[in-house]
Each structure stands twice: as structure tokens, then as C-alpha cells.
Specification:
Blueprint lengths: L1 H23 L3 H4 L1 E2 L16 E2 L2 H15 L4 H21 L7 H23 L2 E4 L4 E4 L2 H22 L5 H19 L8 H21 L8 H18 L6 H4 L1 H19 L14 H7 L5 H29 L1
Antiparallel strand pairs: 1-2, 3-4
Helix pairs in contact: 1-3, 1-8, 3-4, 3-8, 3-9, 4-5, 4-9, 5-6, 5-9, 6-9, 6-11, 7-8, 7-9, 7-13
């Protein structure tokens, strides 16, 4: 019963507080920046001038509500502080008059990834589960740390690159978090179900649901790097915390296909001094390809990508449940 009160109370309170904060945007003039438009991003001009960086509000609500509902567990509090720190690396850029240099942002992402990976391996160990089959594996701590760093880097950047269509990043994040928890539940008994994982996951879903009220097309505000970087950090942490990090290869596939391709394309191009440019004939992120070259409207792009992610997640969960049932 205590768990029900913590989950329901924390989630409902987080949702309502986030709605109120985003409705009135307290401190907007000195807290938030306004969208500058994204260079080369298809249709980004429509967002110029909108309040950006509102991820500050829902991330803070998430962190405080999760900390209280999880009874201020020390290790979890440190992770929540890291989520806030990751948010701040994007928030300060959102509110600056001129965009930060990409290398500075990349360095900050890498530092946060090193920090997140350390917290995960130090507090939560190096034993994991292959979600699809339920196979338990133990990875050498050093290798686990390196893989965790890679996961954080990929998740932060792919989530950030996906945030270019109204409602897209928030919707995909909700699906990813929910699917990760369901996969974790399939791989364990109810008695062994992680309480903090359930609480934090549902609270994050609640604040994102509140944000989406204001971010569906036509959006009134944007989460900015403050929101997308915090989300990317949390999703990577969540996959590791629930002991199923390799599930991100499927659960995070929508992020990888949409935003990840863009990061890969830019990275390879820079490393080879533009001698090799993968996906040269595709505009990236993928949502820009759909808008610019396929003529999709914003709502149709959202529907196609989110429905594709939903189908993928349902199939993945279904196959996982079947494999577990026949084992």
C-alpha cells in the first residue's frame, strides 16, 4: 500500500505542478531563453522566439518528486543530482544569446557520460540481463564502465537531435521509459520489482505528459537542450539501473534512426574531412527528411515516427514475453 501511495502521489503531484509551472512560466524573463532557430533544420524558423529551456522546470519537478518519493536514498539522490547537472549543461546554452560551440557542448556531454557511468557501475554493479531471453551476464567492471559511457553519450546526443519536431522527443521518451520498465518486469518477479525504478519512471512519464500538453503542434514552448539532454541522460541511466542496458539497441532504435543517424553522419564527415559522408542523399535528422523531401506535415511526421516506435516496442515486449513463457 505504501508503494501505491508513493507512485500515485508522486506522479499526480509531479504532473499537476509541472502543468502549473508551464502554464505560468514563473521567472520566464530571467530564467528562460528564446529559440534562435536551428541552422540547416527544416522548418525551424517557425519556432524562433518561443520560450526554450522549459526542460528546466520539468526536470527539477522530476528530481524533487523522485527524491521525496524514494525517501532520499543516497545513491539515487546522487543520480538525480547528475540528471540536474546534465540539464544545466543544456539550460545555460538555451538561455545564452549565442549558441555555445559544439565542441564545448560535446565535452560537457562526455563529462556527464563519464559521471553517469561511474555512478551506475559504482552503485549498481556490473551484472546485467539480456531482456529478450532473461540470460544473466556479468561484465568486467572496466568494460561495463566503457560500455556505459558509450550508452550515455549516444543516448544524450540522439535524444537531443530528435528534438526538432513538436511533441516528438517527449513522446518517444515516454515510450522508451515505459517499455524499459515493462521489459524489466517481464524479467523479474513482482516481489523483486524495483520500487525506485517504478517510481522514478512513472514520475518522469508524468512530467513529460504535462510538458506535451504545451508542446504538441503547434507548440507554445520548447524543452530545449535542458530537457533533451536530461532525458537522454535519464534514459541511459534507467536502462542500466534496471539491469537491461542492451535493450536500448531496440528501445532506443527510434532515437538512433531519427537523431542518431544525424550524429553519425556529422561525426564521420568531420573525422574524414568530408571525404566520406554516409547517408549523403538523406537529410538528417530523419524527421527533416520526411518534412523537406517527402512533404510530410509536422503532425504526420510525429504520427509516423511515434506509431513506428510504438509498434516496435509492442513487438519487442511480445516476443520477449513469448520467449520467457517457453523457457
Amino acid at each position: 500500500m505504501d508503494l501505491i501511495y508513493r507512485v500515485a502521489g508522486g506522479s499526480i503531484a509531479a504532473f499537476l505542478i509541472t502543468v502549473l509551472l508551464l502554464k505560468f512560466l514563473p521567472g520566464e524573463k530571467f530564467l528562460l531563453g528564446h529559440d534562435r532557430g536551428r541552422k540547416y533544420a527544416q522548418g525551424s524558423a517557425v519556432n524562433i522566439g518561443k520560450p526554450t529551456g522549459v526542460g528546466f522546470y520539468f526536470t527539477m519537478v522530476f528530481a524533487i518528486a523522485s527524491g521525496i518519493a524514494c525517501y532520499f536514498e543516497p545513491s539515487f539522490i546522487m543520480v538525480l543530482l547528475a540528471v540536474i547537472a546534465s540539464m544545466m549543461t543544456g539550460f545555460l546554452d538555451d538561455r545564452s544569446k549565442n549558441a555555445w560551440d559544439e565542441y564545448i557542448k560535446g565535452l560537457l556531454d562526455f563529462i556527464m557520460s563519464l559521471t553517469g557511468a561511474f555512478l551506475c557501475v559504482w552503485f549498481y554493479g556490473n551484472d546485467f540481463t539480456i531482456a529478450l531471453t532473461g540470460t544473466k551476464i556479468i561484465i568486467h567492471p572496466a568494460i561495463a564502465y566503457v560500455l556505459a559511457v558509450i550508452l550515455f553519450v549516444v543516448s544524450i546526443n540522439a535524444t537531443n537531435a530528435t528534438d526538432g519536431i513538436d511533441g516528438l522527443s517527449g513522446s518517444l521518451s515516454i515510450l522508451s521509459i515505459a517499455t524499459l520498465f515493462v521489459l524489466s518486469a517481464v524479467n523479474t518477479s513482482f516481489a523483486a520489482l524495483d520500487r525506485n525504478g517504478l517510481i522514478s519512471g512513472l514520475i518522469m512519464i508524468s512530467v513529460l505528459a504535462a510538458y506535451l500538453i504545451f508542446n504538441f503542434n503547434p507548440s507554445k514552448m520548447l524543452m530545449g537542450d535542458a530537457g533533451s539532454r536530461a532525458l537522454g541522460f535519464f534514459i541511459a541511466f534507467y536502462a542500466i539501473y534496471l539491469k537491461i542496458p542492451f535493450a536500448y539497441l531496440i528501445v532506443g532504435l527510434p532515437f538512433l534512426c531519427d537523431g542518431g543517424i544525424s550524429i553519425f553522419k556529422i561525426t564521420v564527415g568531420r573525422l574524414t574531412r568530408k571525404k566520406i559522408i554516409p547517408f549523403k542523399n538523406i537529410t538528417t535528422p530523419l524527421h527533416d527528411e520526411l518534412r523537406k523531401n517527402r512533404g510530410f506535415k509536422v503532425k504526420k511526421v510525429w504520427a509516423v515516427l511515434v506509431c513506428s516506435a510504438l509498434i516496435l516496442d509492442i513487438v519487442y515486449i511480445g516476443v520477449t514475453m513469448i520467449i520467457h513463457a517457453v523457457r
